[in-house]
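U., I forgot to send this yesterday:
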Amino acid sequence: MTDQRRWRPVLFDCPRTGQKVQGLVAEEAFNSENLSHEMVHCLACSENHFIDLRRGPSSKIDWR
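Result:
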């Protein structure tokens, strides 16, 4: 069975390395009235980070 959700690419700053990293966020997160933080997997450091969709995907947030 395939995943029927649609995904949107986002660009965010990795809090560990400082690099700009591209990730994927489900389209439903952007369509929600309650825009909030979404967890994304970081390809730069192999950890998960939360990004704030209200301030834009390129926000520096460190929730460690």
